[in-house]
């Protein structure tokens, strides 16, 4: 069963919180990973890996640079679900 | 019918002695930050590197290898002429032939030991240990010197933000010989040439000949891809090495991954669920990434500091350009 956008956001927020120590409610759709959440490229790869495992999707490395905001990631994951 | 004799196998091998040598120059982050528009803080936060050790113009990779090897042989309690095979893993010996190993064997007083180089980048030390272990146990050789040696400062670009600022110079060596008890677990090793461009030389020597304007080739990497692979895939091979050796995380005293990046080391520790009392090699902070030399350099530091001791069970794993990887559980000498 595919995850809803809300479920993806919630799951992503938990992953980001685990990696960064930020509260989950800081992870909102319009937030930029780099500018708002202060996530560097290596932490981003960690988050991507955990998101792949959690949602059962593949996020190609070359795609990661296009995921500027949390919303971008939610949209990509939602679209990548089988 | 003629019946041949084959080499007589022995049951067990172990590492008899380890030696290491670092480049004599201490290069700080501030020393190299300018051309990459970076800072000490950024480099520390991204890599855990505080300094990297580099060798001056008057010392090449063989000089570093010679010092480390002499220390390893001395630590093993053997004489140099008891070494009957020498394996050198390096990517920074700048002649195609003869091998660094043959020259090294002669310099050490191990002539006429069998000698050859291997190319397995940052997995080179563990590849060499795998070969040394197999050679000793098969009876093909009695005492094998396995060396990882690099002068990576020869193939860096000061303006490269992908890998050059990580790299250092050094050599590490181990003597592998017969043992009454198991001292080297099965090696889990492999490669994935489909990702050959992930860590690469900018252009080939023949490209340089065709177009001298290309300049001296240097190294590059796709840092994020390497980080993801090393942090989340390579740990599985370390786990497989423990499984193959019949040990679990609770049996490991020391974990020594290739010193690529402190954040990769941290992720691997997490992935492997290693108990907090496991001592982790973190020599990268002072020495930088020395490719094939990094694991024995890290072991040497832990043993010199008293954090690791003879008889400790160590999980070691190398990984890098190829892509290649190799892991094994060993008993420290």
Oligomer designation? heterodimer
CATH architecture of the largest domain in chain B: 3-Layer(aba) Sandwich
Strand segment count of chain B: 14
Strand pairing plus helix content of chain B: what structural class? alpha/beta
Looking at the structure, the CATH topology of chain A is: Non-ribosomal Peptide Synthetase Peptidyl Carrier Protein, Chain A
Shape of chain A: globular
Number of domains of chain A: 1
Distance between the termini of chain A: 9 Å
Name the helicity range of chain A: 55-70%
What is the CATH topology descriptor of the largest domain in chain B? Peroxisomal Thiolase, Chain A, domain 1
Report Rg of chain A. Answer: 11 Å
The shape of chain B is: globular
Number of helices of chain A: 4
Helix content of chain B: 25-40%
Briefly characterize the structure:
Chain A has helices at residues 5-20, 41-55, 61-64, 70-80. Chain A has 82 residues and is an all-alpha fold. In chain A, helix 1 crosses helix 2 (41-55) and helix 1 (5-20) crosses helix 4 (70-80).
Descriptive report:
The complex is a heterodimer of chains A (82) and B (333). The model of chain A has no long low-confidence stretch (mean pLDDT 91). With 82 residues, chain A is an all-alpha fold. Chain A starts with a helix and ends with a helix. Chain A has helices at residues 5-20, 41-55, 61-64, 70-80. Chain A contains 4 helices and no strands. Chain A has one domain (5-80): Orthogonal Bundle (Non-ribosomal Peptide Synthetase Peptidyl Carrier Protein, Chain A). Helix content of chain A is 56%, strand content 0%. With 333 residues, chain B is α/β, with parallel strands linked by helices. Chain B has 2 domains: 12-179, 3-Layer(aba) Sandwich (Peroxisomal Thiolase, Chain A, domain 1), CATH 3.40.47; 188-331, 3-Layer(aba) Sandwich (Peroxisomal Thiolase, Chain A, domain 1), CATH 3.40.47. Chain B contains 11 helices and 14 strands. Chain B has helices at residues 29-33, 40-47, 61-76, 100-108, 124-138, 205-210, 223-232, 234-245, 262-272, 284-287, 294-305, and strands spanning 12-22, 25-28, 51-54, 85-89, 114-118, 144-151, 169-179, 188-191, 199-201, 219-221, 254-257, 279-280, 313-320, 324-331. In chain B, the strands form 4 sheets. In chain B, strands 1-7-6-4-5 form a 5-stranded mixed beta sheet, sandwiched between helices. In chain B, α4 (100-108) links the parallel β4 (85-89) and β5 (114-118). In chain B, α3 (61-76) crosses α4, α7 runs parallel beside α9 and α8 crosses α9. The longest helix of chain B has 16 residues, at 61-76. Chain B is globular. Chain A binds chain B through residues 40-42, 44-46, 48-49, 61, 64, and chain B through 45-46, 222-225, 227-228, 231-232, 261, 263, 267.
């Amino acid at each position: 069963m595919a995850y809803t956008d809300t479920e993806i956001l919630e799951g992503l927020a938990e992953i980001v919180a685990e990696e960064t120590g930020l509260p989950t409610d800081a992870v909102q759709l319009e937030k930029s990973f780099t500018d708002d959440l202060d996530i560097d490229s290596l932490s981003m790869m960690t988050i991507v890996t955990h998101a792949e495992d959690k949602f059962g999707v593949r996020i190609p490395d070359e795609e990661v640079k296009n995921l500027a905001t949390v919303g971008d990631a939610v949209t990509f994951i939602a679209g990548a679900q089988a | 019918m003629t019946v041949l004799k084959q080499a007589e196998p022995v049951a067990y091998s172990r590492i008899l002695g380890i030696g290491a040598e670092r480049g004599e120059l201490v290069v700080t982050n501030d020393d190299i930050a300018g051309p990459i528009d970076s800072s000490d803080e950024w480099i520390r936060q991204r890599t855990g590197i505080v300094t990297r050790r580099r060798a001056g113009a008057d010392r090449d990779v063989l000089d570093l290898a010679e010092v480390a090897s002499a220390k390893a042989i001395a630590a093993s309690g053997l004489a140099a002429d008891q070494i009957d095979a020498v394996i050198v893993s390096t990517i920074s010996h700048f002649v195609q032939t003869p091998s660094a190993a043959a020259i090294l064997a002669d310099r050490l007083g191990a002539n006429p030991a069998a000698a050859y180089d291997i190319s397995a980048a940052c997995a080179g030390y563990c590849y060499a240990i795998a070969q040394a272990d197999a050679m000793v146990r098969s009876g093909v050789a009695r005492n094998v010197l396995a060396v990882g040696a690099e002068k990576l400062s020869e193939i860096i670009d000061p303006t490269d933000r992908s890998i050059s600022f990580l790299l250092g110079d050094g050599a590490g060596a181990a003597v592998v010989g017969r043992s009454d008890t198991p001292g080297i677990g099965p090696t889990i090793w492999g490669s994935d040439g489909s990702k050959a461009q992930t860590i690469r030389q900018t252009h080939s020597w023949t490209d340089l000949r065709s177009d001298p304007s290309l300049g001296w080739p240097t190294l590059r990497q796709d840092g994020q891809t390497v980080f993801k692979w090393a942090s989340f895939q390579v740990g599985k091979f370390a786990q497989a090495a423990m499984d193959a050796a019949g040990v679990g995380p609770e049996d490991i005293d020391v974990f020594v991954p290739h010193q690529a990046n402190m954040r990769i080391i941290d992720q691997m520790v997490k992935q492997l669920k290693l108990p907090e009392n496991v001592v982790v090699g973190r020599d990268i902070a002072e020495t930088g990434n020395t490719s094939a030399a990094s694991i024995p350099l890290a072991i040497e530091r832990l043993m010199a500091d008293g954090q690791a001791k003879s008889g400790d069970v160590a999980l070691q794993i190398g990984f890098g350009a190829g892509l290649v990887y190799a892991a094994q559980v060993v008993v420290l000498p």
